Amino acid sequence: MDDKNNTFLFSEEVIDFVKIANEFCELAENNLPHSRKELLEKLQIILPQLYVQCVKLPQVESIFEEGNEKFTTEEEYEMVQKGFESKLGYLDDYLEIVEPDLSDADGPVVCKLSEDFADIFQDLKDFLTLFRIGNNEMMNDAIWETKLNFGTYWGQKLVNSMRVIHKILNTDDPVIEDNKDSEAMQRTTERDTSSWFVTKRQEDFRDFPSIEDK
Q1: Which of 22, 66, 103, 118 is the most exposed place for a label (fewest CB within 10 A)?
Q2: Confidence check: pLDDT of 152 > 80
Q3: Which of 156, 167, 39, 203 is nearest to 94 (CA)?
Q4: 100-136: pLDDT as tens digits
Q5: Residue 50 and residue 197: Cα distance in Å, rounded?
Q6: Would you tell me how many other CB atoms lie within 10 Å of the CB of residue 156?
Q7: How crowded is the C-beta side of 85, counted as CA atoms within 13 Å?
Q8: Other residues' Cβ atoms within 10 Å of the Cβ of residue 145
């Protein structure tokens, strides 16, 4: 790839994506807020930016026939997943109805925000590492693979997590912190949970007519 054809590698769109990808990875690895609510509020800002900037990445063709080298280790993935899981606590699980042609699951499945974020982290960390190497061909293929994985895999996880976080932060139920405000946690446990978003999704699914009913 000559210099005349690689100007897009340093375009505003690419640089903006590098910045927001780095911000997410820094948050995931080193800077989870002490407050559960603060973490959700940070993610509510970062995740939509990540979506938009990935969409704006240029469309490129891959150069190398073999796949890109992977740098994120299993230990790093698990560290990030466990970090989010510990911080999110009771808010980590959510229900998702998977398209019938994409899964053998019969009905809604339980997903984890922490696993979604770890999957996103893994792809972004590999992207950033390839970019830091500074080889134009590798940078090109890093963009190509990121766009591909975004469209076919982790982009949907990103959308799911934004939906869940939006719901959590826009209900009357407070975000309960671990080892804090135990009385509020007790009240939350004792009160009617019929309006909770996970419970509501379960009820909606049960009310949905089955094939036999049609």
Answers
A1: 66
A2: yes
A3: 167
A4: 554 555 668 899 999 999 999 999 999 999 989 878 9
A5: 25
A6: 14
A7: 11
A8: 18
List beta partners, residue 109: 96
**φ, ψ (nearest 5 deg) of residue 157:** -65, -40
Q: Which two tokens stand for residue 160?
A: 């799911």
Q: What is the pLDDT of residues 27-49, one digit of tens each?
A: 999 889 999 999 999 999 999 99
User: What pTM does this model have?
Assistant: 0.78
Say if CB 123 and CB 149 are below 8 A apart: yes
Are the C-beta atoms of 85 and 112 separated by less than 8 Å? yes
Longest dimension (CA), the chain: 66
**CATH topology classification for 3-172:** Four Helix Bundle (Hemerythrin (Met), subunit A) (1.20.120)
Q: List the one residue out of 24, 157, 150 whose CA is nearest residue 94.
A: 157
Number of Cβ atoms within 10 Å of the Cβ of 129 = 17
**Which sequence spans correspond to the domains of the chain?**
3-172
Contact between 137 and 64 (Cβ < 8 Å): yes
Residue corresponding to tokens 């699980």: 93
